[in-house]
Design goal:
This protein is α/β, with parallel strands linked by helices. It has a single domain, classed as Rossmann fold (3-Layer(aba) Sandwich). It contains eleven helices and twelve strands. α1 packs across α7, α3 runs parallel beside α5 and α8 packs across α11. The longest helix is centred in the C-terminal third of the chain and has 15 residues.
Length: about 290
């Protein structure tokens, strides 16, 4: 039995489908089971509640062969550390008792900016907490997600602009969430690994923001350009979307760190590279969403 937390999100939802397709028994932890993808509820065991609740995870993790751990950071948390480590601390004993854990993390460990990278710094600290329990743990470390472009389904078609805080000419990796789910599914089904390791998960190419805008324009068949948002403006935009002061500052700190090479510290190898190019992702995901 494999337990999947956050099963209604981009990664968790695709992971559940991947596991079900190969006949693996799945148990999910969901606050709102009604948000599960159509047809999933009938095929999985459901434990309703939050995976920061020790009583919920005690039920969910019973008899599990592996656990997928993803913290969807509460935008109202006082700080990124509270959002990640604060969420995880109450259930560390339960995580320590399962055979294996695969978690969602971020690139950056070992880079000069890792200690001041906002949400990434907090995520790496959460990994250290989990690893310190002694549970076999694989932290999937990722750059920015291609799927984040979906947040701009209004501005891209209507304004022809892709906005962001990243400098226009910085070449960096991205990754599709469907490929993250595929890597997680493989590791969750593999009972041979032990210890703690980070597993970088990189898309097959590095692109600048200007190059990404050009790909989007070509796929959508309309002009699209990239416009960098100043840091203060970006932080204010985060506040306007409902983030707390601490979480908004954490987003800005992460963006500044990415501009200083946070995502560029790991070399791409065949083992670390995933198949979905940004162009293919735009054809498969962005264009249907924009045309809907």
């Amino acid at each position: 039995m494999i337990v999947v937390t956050a099963p209604t999100g981009h990664i968790g939802g695709q992971l559940v489908q991947d596991l079900l397709e190969v006949g693996v028994p799945v148990r999910v932890v969901a606050r709102d089971p009604a948000r599960l993808a159509p047809g999933v509820a009938e095929r999985v065991e459901i434990v309703q509640g939050s995976h920061r609740d020790p009583a919920v995870v005690a039920e969910a993790f019973a008899g599990a062969s592996a656990v997928f751990w993803l913290v969807a950071a509460d935008p109202l948390s006082a700080s990124p550390d509270e959002a990640y480590s604060g969420f995880t601390r109450p259930v560390l004993d339960a995580l320590a008792a399962v055979p294996r854990v695969v978690g969602i993390s971020a690139l950056g460990r070992g880079t000069p900016v890792a200690g001041r990278a906002g949400h990434v710094t907090a995520t790496l600290a959460m990994d250290d907490l989990i690893a310190a329990t002694g549970v076999p743990y694989r932290a999937l470390t990722m750059p920015s997600f291609m799927d984040n472009v979906l947040w701009q389904l209004t501005s891209i078609p209507q304004q022809g602009v892709l906005y962001g805080p990243i400098v226009p000419d910085l070449s960096a990796p991205t990754v599709a969430t469907r490929d993250i789910a595929a890597v997680a599914a493989r590791l969750l089904r593999d009972d041979a690994w032990t210890g703690f390791e980070e597993v970088p998960v990189l898309g097959p190419e590095d692109l600048t923001q200007n190059e990404m805008a050009a790909v989007i324009a070509d796929v959508l068949g309309r002009p699209v350009r990239y416009q960098q948002v100043p840091g203060d403006t970006y932080r204010e935009n985060m506040l306007q979307t409902g983030l707390s002061e601490g979480m908004a500052q954490g987003m800005l700190d992460m963006a500044v760190a990415k501009n200083e090479g946070l995502d560029n510290g790991v070399a791409r190898t065949p083992e670390r590279s995933t198949p979905t190019t940004f162009r293919q992702w735009c054809l498969d995901v962005l264009k249907p969403a924009a045309d809907a």
